[in-house]
Amino acid sequence: MQIRALAPSDLDAVLAIQSSCPEAAQWSRADYERVCAAAESSTRAWVAISDAQLAGFILIRRAADEIEILNLAVAPGARRTGIASSLLHAALEPARNAGVRRAFLEVRESNAGAIAFYLHHGFTRTGRRPNYYSAPAEAALILSREI
After folding, report:
1. Neighbour-count burial of 137, counting CB atoms closer than 10 A to its CB (0-12 exposed, 13-18 middle, 19+ buried)
2. Is the C or the N end of the chain the one with fewer CB within 10 Å?
3. Per residue in 42-54, pLDDT tens?
4. CA neighbor of 67 nearest in space, from 93, 48, 30
5. Contacts of residue 53, Cβ cutoff 8 Å, sequence gap at least 6
6. How far apart, in Å, are the Cα atoms of 73 and each of 28, 67, 99, 108?
7. For the chain, what are the domain ranges?
8. Residue range 57-77: mean pLDDT, rounded
9. 13-32: per-residue pLDDT in tens?
């Protein structure tokens, strides 16, 4: 598996994975294009390539000494192969080296698989946002960890 920065040529595959993962944040092509174009932006993205296919992606945003995980998705057929863990590590390690102290994210309260994944990686529940999501309306759990 290879982890590398998101490139404009990846967008069709990223959007296809995103559309196959309704639990993921649904960004527009223009949103991803802005991430690719803004090399000095506080938002960064990586993709995982497995068996010559783009198999997953992660986006983070840095603010001061924190990062927020904005989106993490793995193609349904590539799940449970370590791709999500590798992507998470690819985002957290350089952040730690750059002086980031904390990572956090919101996740749908019903997304048991994602919650279990993040808890396994040292995140803890630190809050809840009622009615955070729409379509369908649902609360978000706030998870965070020191890095």
Report:
1. exposed
2. N
3. 899 999 999 999 9
4. 93
5. 13, 75, 78
6. 15, 17, 26, 14
7. 2-146
8. 95
9. 999 999 999 888 889 999 99
**Which pTM was predicted?**
0.92
pLDDT tens-digit map of 79-123: 999 999 999 999 999 999 999 999 999 999 999 999 999 999 999
Residue 5, strand partner residues:
46
Whether domain 2-146 has CATH 3.40.630.30: the reply is yes
Q: Which residues sit opposite 140 in a β-bridge? A: 108, 129
Q: Where are the alpha helices (DSSP H) in 3-146?
A: 11-19, 29-37, 83-97, 112-120
Tokens 């993040």 -> residue: 118
**17 within 8 A of 54, measured Cβ to Cβ:** yes
Distance CA 25, CA 20 (A): 11
